[in-house]
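Hi F.,

I've been meaning to write this up properly since the lab meeting, where we talked about keeping a consistent format for the predictions we share between groups. The idea is simple: the sequence comes first, exactly as it goes in, then the structure tokens exactly as they come out, then a line or two of notes. No screenshots and no reformatting. I'm using this chain as the first example so we have something concrete to point to.
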Amino acid sequence: MFYLFPEQAVTYYAPTEVRKTPITLFRAREFHSVKMLPDELSEILQDPTWGWNKFSPDPVEVHFVPGNHETMMTNPHVQVLAERLGVSLDQII
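Output, unedited:
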């Protein structure tokens, strides 16, 4: 499994095309202090869509889930994430 921290993801992955496709972003409610991050990353993280709105003409659907970037994938927070993910998948099927 390959895992990127948010600051690494910004450095190593940058989409370049705008596509007519819906984007759904699941964000952790808790976050590290933006003051400790590089300026470029700090700006992106202040945007609720984390910059994904640049890559689709459609609005980005943002879901805030409990926990932080790591604990959102563990009990009890993962249950909320799974529920919201399920609702999103049901809407496109």
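Notes:
Residues 20-92 form one domain.
The longest strand covers residues 24-28.

If this format works for you, I'll send the rest the same way.

G.
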